[in-house]
Write the structure tokens for this entry.
Amino acid sequence: MSLARFFLSLVAGMWLLAVPVAHASGPVVLTVEGNIEGNAPRDFTVADLEAMGVTKVTTSTPWHDKVVTFEGVLLSDLLDKVGGKGETIEGVALNNFYTEIPVSDATSYGVLLAFKADGSYLGVRDKGPLFVIYPFDRFPELRNELYYSRSIWQLRRIKLK
């Protein structure tokens, strides 16, 4: 093998190592880390989340002019899937916005990780690809700034503590 060919192979191999790995079912939209089974971060695509079972929540929000039907996976189901333990979920958005969600909210209120609104997948411009939705109409006590601040949109990472 010539030196030029060797160098080209080396550069190509290094480039392949630098490319982020995507699942066959689409790009990774969520990474779950922290106090989870195996302690290694877990990546999920929208297809991975859909395969866990889709739940619908119809509610009004402060960010929409009408009642919206959201579809997604229950946060409690995701926590079960990863063997999550802890009391707090740190949520981080694409723009590095940060919020804390008590794990108890997931079970008490049926918090949804929504990837669809009114039948359409959420894009970044629509507060997606993942939007934490509380059922505000079902539990009127949630209609306040504390719970609105936990409804993080463009969610990208969660860490269990």
Summary: The beta strands are 28-34, 42-45, 55-59, 68-74, 88-93, 98-102, 112-117, 120-121, 131-133, 155-160. The CA atoms of residues 63 and 146 lie 15 Å apart.
